[in-house]
Write a structure and sequence with these properties.
Helix 5 runs parallel beside helix 6, helix 6 packs antiparallel against helix 8 and helix 10 runs antiparallel to helix 11. The protein is an alpha+beta fold. About 2% of the residues have low confidence. Strands 2-1-5-4-3 form a five-stranded antiparallel sheet. It has three domains: 141 residues, 2-Layer Sandwich (Beta-Lactamase); 89 residues, no CATH class; 149 residues, Heat Shock Protein 90 (2-Layer Sandwich). It is built from eleven helices and twelve strands. Helix content is 53%, strand content 16%.
């Protein structure tokens, strides 16, 4: 905006300056030429009146002394020509035509060195004498260049002043907009306390006021959301405590151990949710997780349930210690969501596989696939809360957000088992 204002001011001022300066330059040139021609006509007329009084016979005696040794009158070349006779004063070019003046007509014409003024005079005895005065080209241009440079300088100063004023005006308008953009960037980076200093023109002041009001509302809504989620998560502790007491009262068995482990995992997730809600800036902590270890732990967690439902659970982990930039709890929650989807949306006995392998470039892929019916044809991973079935559809979104936060993405397709395949692509820490 600032550059455009300066550009517009420069263009408009330059056009106005040219519209006035160019005609003024032409006018100055013409006035200087007319001034010199008028002076030449005046000098020629003065000598012509003198010639008319003294006659051609006394020109040498009475008029000749008026001219300088170079044939100049008032520092101007002047020639007296007696038609058919002698010439007094400045010399003439051999080819110069005096026929029009000899016929009794006053005129002027361009000659070598400037403009010549011809005034015919009829002497006392009927003879014709032509008085020729030269308006020299240099004299016709005298002072013109200086005036032109002065006009050009004034025009330049006018344009520069207009540009400076436009730049100041643009800066006063753009600075509040830049502050608004910077504040919006800070808010987008997670600084919910960022506010705009209200300044600038009335329109920008209204935008700044509306932005501050919006920022305050967003902060209040997020705070309410965090408090509500934390309260709901905290309320889960009561039924979890009751379930744990009931589980502890059961006789010792593998089923009891499995149930206690599952309750421990639920309690861990609830604690993690409360912790994350109270510390919303998750990416600033720079967490690094060994993806192979987390995948192995989550597969081991789901293996007993897979065995109970008669499912084959194949694993493929390269044990290469691939490190990704995401919290361990986030990665575990994403894997639980993907594996849990298989158990929720396929029939018991349907096989599944979980594998980890390097992708093209600096990525590692976690692939979860099953031998079920696959995804609905119109399912998009970008549609939060939509699954194509009667579920909430948030599992895929949890995995997608985890992948995106780690510099990757979530891909849907058909796997080697014939059913759905979900690839969670994560960026390796350090790109390797």
């Amino acid at each position: 905006m600032r550059a455009r204002l300066v550009g517009v001011a420069f263009a408009v001022t330059a056009m106005v300056a040219l519209a006035f300066v160019v005609p003024l330059m032409i006018l100055v040139r013409d006035l200087a030429a007319d001034r010199e021609l008028s002076a030449a006509e005046r000098d020629a007329g003065a000598v012509a009146r003198l010639v008319a009084v003294v006659g051609s016979d006394s020109i040498d005696e009475l008029v000749g002394p008026v001219l300088s040794a170079d044939g100049e009158f008032n520092d101007r070349p002047l020639t007296i020509v007696i038609v058919g006779g002698d010439t007094v004063g400045a010399p003439l070019d051999p080819g110069e035509d005096l026929a029009t003046a000899a016929a009794g007509t006053t005129f002027r014409q361009s000659v070598n060195g400037g403009e010549a003024i011809y005034i015919p005079v009829l002497g006392p005895e009927g003879e014709t004498v032509v008085v020729r005065a030269l308006a020299e080209e240099e004299a016709m241009r005298a002072g013109v260049a200086r005036v032109w440079w002065t006009l050009a300088g004034l025009a330049t100063v006018l344009v520069v002043l207009a540009v400076v004023v436009a730049d100041r005006l643009g800066r006063s308008m753009v600075r509040p907009v830049d502050d608004l953009a910077a504040t919006a960037d800070r808010m987008g980076s997670g600084d919910l306390d960022a506010r705009v200093d209200i300044a600038g023109p009335p329109e920008i002041r209204r935008v700044g006021t509306a932005f501050n009001r919006l920022a305050a509302q967003i902060g209040a809504l997020l705070q309410l959301e965090r408090e509500t989620a934390a309260d709901l998560s905290h309320r889960l502790r009561t039924p979890l405590t009751g379930a744990r007491l009931n589980a502890d009262a059961l006789p010792d068995s593998d089923r009891k151990d499995q149930l206690v482990a599952q309750l421990d995992d639920i309690e861990r997730v609830v604690d993690y949710v409360i912790d994350e809600i109270r510390r919303p800036d998750r990416q600033a902590r720079g967490a690094v997780t060994d993806i192979d270890r987390v995948v192995a732990e989550r597969v081991a967690f789901w293996e007993p349930l897979a065995a109970d439902e008669g499912r084959t659970l194949d694993t493929g982990i390269n044990r290469s210690r691939a490190l990704v930039g995401t919290p361990e709890a986030d990665l575990a929650a994403a894997l639980d969501a993907l594996i849990g989807n298989v158990f929720a949306h396929t029939e018991p006995g349907t096989g599944l596989a979980v594998s980890v392998h390097r992708s093209n470039g600096p990525y590692v892929d976690v692939v979860v696939e099953d031998a079920g019916d696959g995804f609905p044809p119109d399912l998009s991973v970008a549609d939060r809360g939509r699954s194509g079935t009667d579920s909430t559809g948030l599992g895929l979104d949890i995995a997608r957000r985890t992948a995106v936060a780690a510099g990757g993405d979530l891909l849907l397709g058909t796997g080697s088992l014939g059913g759905a395949q979900i690839t969670m692509r994560l960026l390796l820490v350090g790109g390797r």
